[in-house]
Amino acid sequence: MPAYEFSADPRRVDRVTVHRWLSELSYWARGRSREQQDAAIEGSRNYGVYDRDTGEQVGYARIVTDGATFAWLCDVFVSPDARGQGIGKALMAGIVADVEPLGVRRVMLATADAHGLYAQFGFEGLRAAEKYMVLGAH
Asked: Which candidate in 36, 46, 53, 135 could, as Cys together with 10 as Cys, close a disulfide (CB 3.0–4.6 Å)?
């Protein structure tokens, strides 16, 4: 099993690979243009997990935040070829450690299928979902 490393360095993000993953393989960003993805990367804190031997990116996520009170975790993706090796856990552990010093009061996310992963890091369902609203929900 290869060794992996977490990085919060946005310069390491393989934009071509991340765009392919999200625009072709994800259920939430299918069809996203490269221009949209590049803009999203530029406006976010970006994270990756990389194979230490090859340098190949095997995981990605980003946080949209004001850096003080609120953060939104999104675009979490692990390469299909590398799933089941703890990469999602490594990605989440690194993100939580990176965001914690900011002191944000709330980090939110939306998921259709990874509740178990996020629960391991303290995420839970909304307690007062009726308070929350969304514009542009599809």
From this structure: 46
> What's the token pair of residue 22?
């999200």
Give the range of the structural domain holding residue 45, as residue numbers without chain letter.
4-131
Q: How confident is the model at residue 122 (pLDDT cuts 50, 70, 90)?
A: confident
Which uninterrupted H or E stretch holds 95?
Answer: helix 87-99
- Alpha-carbon distances, residue 66 vs 44, 97, 135 (angstroms): 10, 17, 19
Q: Read off the pLDDT of each residue in 66-94 and give the average, rounded to a whole number.
A: 95
What is the DSSP code (8-state) at residue 31?
T
DSSP state of 23: I
CATH of the domain at 92: 3.40.630.30
Mode of pairing for the β-strands spanning 57-65 and 106-108: unpaired
68 part of a folded domain: yes
- The model carries a pTM of 0.90
